[in-house]
Amino acid sequence: MIKIRKKIIAYTMVTVLSLQSVSFSKAAVYNDYGLESKNATLSQVSGLSDKWATVIKNAIETWNNSGAGVKVEQSVTPVSALEVASYADSWYGLTKSYYNVSTGYTSKSEIKINDRTISRDASNFSRFAQSTVAHEIGHLYWLADNPVDSPAGYNMSLMNHGRNRNTIYEPQVFDVSNVKRKYSSKVAYDISDNTADDIVNYISVDEPEYNMASKFVKAADILVSGTVVAQKTKMLEIGTANEKMPYTIYEIEVKDKYKGDCASTIYAKRLGGKIDGSDDILSGAADINVGDAYVFALKDYGNSDYGFVNTTQSAMALKESPIYKYGNINRKDVIAFADKATSVQSMTADERIYGTEKKLKKASDIVIIGDVIDYSYEVLEDNLYTIWKVKVGRVEKGQEKSEIVYIKTLGGRKDTLISLVENMTKIECGNSYKFYLEDYGEDYYGLANYSESVIKLKVKTIID
Question: Considering the entire predicted model, what is its pTM?
């Protein structure tokens, strides 16, 4: 018999809702940790509106009345802390449990509920919120995520990621049976210790996996390919009370831009990493290595704060085969929505050609030199346009005084279709251009013509 050292492991469960149709990998019915007793105590929550007090009370009652034989109470000296706040991340609920490897018994837990994301996304707040709280309580009683893997089985369990939260907001027969079975067997875990005595944090993220490339691309705010040139781990604030969790920050040198950001270098954060002697491991995370190239699918949280759409599919290695699979989608299908394989519709513009810069400038209302810093697509009067955000460096004609102007050009991207005016100079983010513009008295300027009005400038950098 191998001697077992006792140590505490922090295990984090993060709950994220997807309103998409998704496919998940089946997990075991039980986690490796849970309460020794069927009695659970949660902290009393203060400073919240009545809507949350009622939600939490109802979630507790559903477990107490479920027939599982458990008893959940709120206490001033709880084993499990419960907090509702506004957290700066995409998850809806998080349970962090500290447990002993040799027994699996939890010594303490922390449940966090994200009021910001739930209030933003819930169509039926009371049921959706209760479903999240009751789900997190289920983790205290050893229950694992996704115990049923088929779409038909999503609504069999409160613990399934794909459940309908408007209808599944209390323990189901499946969950109750599993809790009863767990505590009738009272099996303690016998796990050999082959690691160091440092604390290891296992982070398990409850999130969507997409079964269609179109849904995956739609879920991403940013879709780029590029090389990871550096990475570092930092403790980042997740809430309003200076709470922090470890994130690895990846510096990505962008090669191709399919959707979203214009920058040539972007930084994306993902839970987990090594810091201060602690190894925080994100379960199921795709490997990301410095020096390798990937297709990255990211979420934009504002102020250039980017996170991953999900753990398993959002870093697609380019060194793998063209049809490298990530769950039920593959990289080839994802890129097909944005790269050269996408259907292209060419347009020609029947317009006046001026022939000389002097005549073109005379015909223009505004002439500016500026850097393209962002773009978006918009349908105006039944036509698809690209709206370019330009930071003005110099005005050569006109009375434009704004530092930022917006220019519309025919064409853009919609689903798998790219439409473009074939005789126009290609405009790309991060580059400098001279624009000859017409002022229509609207929110956007237009080009004087398509064939002559966009001139790409070469920028010479002198380093002293």
Answer: 0.60
